[in-house]
Specification:
This protein is mainly alpha-helical. It has one domain. Helices cover 38% and strands 7% of the residues. It contains 7 helices and 4 strands. The strands form 2 sheets. It has a two-stranded antiparallel sheet with strand order 1-2. It has a two-stranded antiparallel sheet with strand order 3-4. Helix 2 packs across helix 6 and helix 4 crosses helix 6. The N and C termini lie far apart (62 Å).
């Protein structure tokens, strides 16, 4: 008898969750591919790493709307965290106030410029390059491309149950192509011996 109310609550919770998902997916289908891509980059936190921040009204950092998805700003110095303070690859601590440089056992990685700038962003990439990059964890999706470093969660995006299907990656691609190009040469990753 004590378990019966829990069963009702659980059933009601599952029913409500199913209804919320049904409404969400029907709402999402009404969005254009650009709007879906913008939504997905927001939900999955892409903008949080790939967009530099500026001080907001309450002095907390907010995304810089003039540099959406443009990566770590060119020429901006970054403070480094001693690698002895970083225990493993999951101990992510952004280096600096812009939240676009990340030290770890791999060295220092910088958030990439994902705008359609042809010289410094992904303007010369194809949709296939983009999807292969996410699927393989290699720059431009090439087998010889450099490894995509943390905190980029490319493995999570490929997870069989919670990862993104190609259709979602295509919507993200359409959104990225619709952004204004920002000329911003992101520095290459630094190996551990140069970052301490």
């Amino acid at each position: 008898m004590g378990k019966r109310p829990l069963f009702r609550v659980t059933s009601l919770t599952l029913l409500l969750a199913g209804l919320v998902l049904l409404v969400y997916f029907s709402w999402e289908k009404k969005l254009s591919p650009v709007e879906r891509g913008r939504h997905l980059t927001s939900v999955f936190g892409c903008q949080g790493c790939h967009t530099p921040t500026v001080p907001g009204p309450s002095a907390l950092p907010v995304p810089d709307p003039t540099r959406l998805m443009s990566g770590h700003p060119e020429g901006v110095p970054y403070p480094t965290t001693p690698l002895t303070a970083v225990r493993d690859q999951y101990d992510l601590r952004p280096a600096g106030p812009l939240l676009t440089a990340w030290p770890g056992p791999w060295g220092v990685s910088f958030s990439a410029n994902l705008t359609p700038d042809k010289e410094t962003g992904i303007g010369d990439w194809t949709e296939e390059n983009f999807i292969r990059t996410i699927r393989t964890g290699r720059h431009e999706g090439r087998p010889t491309g450099r490894e995509i470093l943390p905190p980029m969660p490319w493995r999570n995006l490929n997870h069989p149950t919670v990862g993104l299907p190609d259709s979602a990656l295509k919507d993200i691609w359409v959104y990225l192509r619709a952004l204004p190009p920002v000329r911003n040469q992101v520095p290459p990753p630094l190996p551990p011996e140069r970052s301490s």
